[in-house]
Amino acid sequence: MRIRRTRVAATAVLAAVALTLGACAEDTGSGTDAGSGNGNASGTIKEGLKVTFLPKQVNNPYFDTSDNQGGKPAVEEFKGQYAQTGPSEASPSAQVSYINTLSQQGTDVIIIAANDQDAVCGSLTEAKAAGAKIVTYDSDTKPECRDAFVNQATSEGIAQAQIKLISDAVGSEGGEIAILSATANATNQNAWIELMKTELAKPEYSKLKLVATVYGDDQDEKSFQEAQGLLSKYPNLKGIISPTTVGIAAAARYLSGSSYQGKVQLTGLGTPNQLREYVKDGTVKAFALWNPADLGYLAAYTGAALASGIITGKEGEKFTAGKLGEFTLGANGEVLLGDPFEFTASNIDQFNF
Amino acid sequence: MATDTLVTPARTAKAGPPAWRRLFGSWDAVLILALLVVVLVASATIEGVGSPRFYRFVALEAIPIALIALPMTLVIITGEIDLSVASTVGLTCSVLGQLWYLGVTSLPLLILLSLLLGAVLGAVNGVFITVFGLPSLAVTIGTLALYRGLAYVVLGDRAIADYPPTWTQNAVAPIPGTVIPWFVLVLAALAVVFGVLLYATPIGRSLYAIGNNAEASNFAGISVLRTKFWLFVATGAMAALAGVFWTFRFASARADNATGLELAVVAAVLLGGVSIFGGRGGLVGVIAAVALLGILRNALQLADVPANALTIVTGTLLILSVVGPNLVRMARERLRRRRPATTLERKPS
User: Fold this and answer.
1) Is the pLDDT of residue A104 over 80?
2) In chain B, which residue's Cα lies nearest the Cα of A86?
3) Which CATH number fits domain A155-289: 3.40.50.2300, 1.20.120.550, 3.30.200.20, 3.40.50.1000?
4) Which of B22, B108, B240, B308 has the maximal Cβ count within 10 Å?
5) Are B298 and B232 in contact (CB under 8 A)?
6) Chains A, B: CB contacts under 8 A, how many?
7) Nearest CB neighbour to A92, from listed B54, B252, B301
8) What are the angstrom distances between the C-alpha of B137 and each of B13, B133, B142, B266, B286?
9) A83 contact residues in B (CB cutoff 8 A)
């Protein structure tokens, strides 16, 4: 296996050199240390890396944003070859077929949003043996099947952003707030709600009072009715946090058609396409999610850093991801994108997903 | 008689056409030729095609399709169809995963129970079709939904994936000294069994009679219903075997495993020259078609053809598979009818 890997590395170096020669006119002569292989201390990304994004499915606006608007510019920055491929339906077995294709094509970096954390493992291991570096984004696999995972946000980061957003929207007066969640037993929702309560206990949020947590079960109608119920039950309510895309859209629709519009603040986790009109009519001042383009951008740089030997996937290693700056690998090869991204009236039109 | 002496030399001079015609008159030959052309052209033009690893991946992908295509060929020859096979795979995967989850740790027992389950699911189809006399298309569309639904009842949205690594590694292990998965040997053995059954036993030959005219076959002493019933049982069991392979190959039992696989199977069988109306076709063509579809798909994927275009290619091939054999047959009959005419025209010269 060692022999095969060095041979692949040698091929990659040759390819990189060939490309460097080919691109001489615009190149000032970097890439000379591409041959150092493992332990690239200088931190220069090799040129000519073949970086392929394998989203859960193609023709999906979310992944088109992360791959084509984030991954592609990143790959162009470090002079690699960008591609996006994948099945038209989000099935694990179809994804396996594409992983096999990529490992035959000698792709240097595979960046995958796994449809099943286990089913893609066997083929990813084969691709690794063929010399590819594996980065997961959006949805992770088992840690042993990939080299690094680019995590869009931590639970703490999400909880902190939600509380800060509602506090800013309600204003210094503070007042009563409520949470409109998904289902009562959703693991991630409950984790966020607990962390939001911890956050509310901090002195700077002492004027905010959480009066209720209701569940819209991620159904549009139920969420709509729950939002309605909150306002009739708590006439002094100042704000609603809905950390679920279904809930925030339903609550926004209710508020924008009611007399509470602009008086009761709404924030949460949502996507620009579903909330655009409510941000523009003032129902929602700001909401959070991660920026998928940044996610794709960071994933591309993470893969390139792995393929260039700058990092190996160990905790504490550092690398620079272009305009996003320096990142440090956490436990289990995790790279954290950062705090959730805030969408407001001024930036929402830059996004389409 | 006089004409004969005139014509014979001309015919021997043109000895090529009849042989050529005979070769192309058979859809099997067309498929095998197409397979060769695709392999040669793709190997020469697309990097990676033709390497041992390429065939390993094609084989891994084709095994579940081929396993189900074997009995499906026989079913379609009798003029029936089984669209519930992919859901049978999904339900088998789910039950297998759940049994493991509940503590059944003997691999032979798990495989045996899975095959039994598949046979029972096939028998349910068989009973509706043969005892109640319902059309197989309607029955198996029903069980397609029913079995998939049951799979979700068993597993919900869980995935059972914590099998011993030796099981999952063994499922895709190569034949020693090669990279070709050993499961191909299981498939080959089963192909021989089905081949002997179809080509060399009275039951096999009776399937064509049933497909051409079930009523007449009945009068001729063929037990049409019993034959059909067991064909559906066999299809269920083979789908279950595909499910066992699927579970360990992907190391993941999920209720949505193999969704849509029935279309890949039916496409291969029809492209293989089996008539959707029954009574015509064979296993040679079907096996060639499974290989052709698998190689074509993987080669196009290596050539970076996007997923949408791949779907179009598969769709076009399916249409061709229905139209193609009929065109070949029509062309053949026309040539045969034209031959005496040509002889007559030559008379004056």
Assistant:
1) yes
2) B307
3) 3.40.50.2300
4) B240
5) no
6) 71
7) B252
8) 51, 12, 9, 12, 21
9) 304
Region(s) of chain A under CATH 3.40.50.2300: 2-152+292-338, 155-289
Residue A116 and residue B252: Cβ atoms within 8 Å? yes
- Using CB atoms within 10 Å of the CB of residue B180, give its burial: 0 to 12 exposed, 13 to 18 middle, 19+ buried: middle
Taking only Cα atoms into account, the Rg of chain A, rounded to an integer number of angstroms, comes to 23
Amino acid at residue number A85: T
Q: Indicate which of A101, A140, A185 best probes the interface with B, i.e. most B CBs within 10 Å of its own CB.
A: A101
Q: If pLDDT is split at 50, 70 and 90, which confidence band does B20 have?
A: low
Q: What is the DSSP letter of A334?
A: E
Instruction: Give CA separation, B319 vs A295, B36, B169, B312, in Å.
Output: 42, 21, 38, 11
Calculate how close chain B gets to A82, using CA atoms only, in Å: 12
pLDDT at A194: 94
Own/partner pairs, B344-347, CB within 8 angstroms, 24+ separation? B346/B6, B346/B7, B346/B10, B347/B3, B347/B6
* Interface contact A122-B259, CB threshold 8 A: no
How large is the ipTM? 0.79
Is the Cβ–Cβ distance between B122 and B232 less than 8 Å? yes
Total Cβ atoms within 10 A of residue B346: 13
CB of A32 less than 8 A from some CB of B: no
A24 close to A10: Cβ distance less than 8 angstroms: no
**Minimal Cα distance from A130: which residue of B?**
B53
CB atoms within 10 A of CB A308: 28
A91 in contact with B, Cβ within 8 Å: yes
**A59 contacts chain B (CB < 8 A):** yes
Which positions in chain B have a beta carbon within 8 angstroms of at least one beta carbon in chain A?
47-48, 51, 53-54, 57, 60-61, 159, 161, 168, 172, 246, 249-252, 254, 256-260, 297-298, 301-302, 304, 306-308, 311
In the CATH scheme, what architecture does the domain A2-152+292-338 have? Answer: 3-Layer(aba) Sandwich (3.40)
**pLDDT, tens digit, 9 for 90 and up, residues A144-203:** 999 999 999 888 999 999 999 999 999 989 999 999 998 887 778 888 999 999 999 999
pLDDT bin (cut points 50, 70, 90) of residue A33 is very low
Closest residue in chain B to residue A102, using alpha carbons only? B302
Side-chain half-sphere exposure of A25, counting CA atoms within 13 A: 1
Q: How far off is chain A from B331, nearest CA to CA, in Å?
A: 38
For residue B251, give the chain A residue with the closest CA: A119
pTM value?
0.78
Domains along chain B with CATH numbers: 33-342 (1.10.3470)
Query: How many Å apart are CA A31 and CA A24, to the nearest integer?
Result: 11
Q: Check B250 against A92: CB less than 8 A apart.
A: yes
Q: pLDDT, tens digit, for every residue of B47-74?
A: 889 899 999 999 999 999 999 999 999 9
- Residue of chain A nearest B157, judged by CA positions: A116
DSSP states of A146-198 as a string? -SEEEES--HHHHHHHHHHHHHHHH-TT-EEEEEEES-TT-HHHHHHHHHHHH
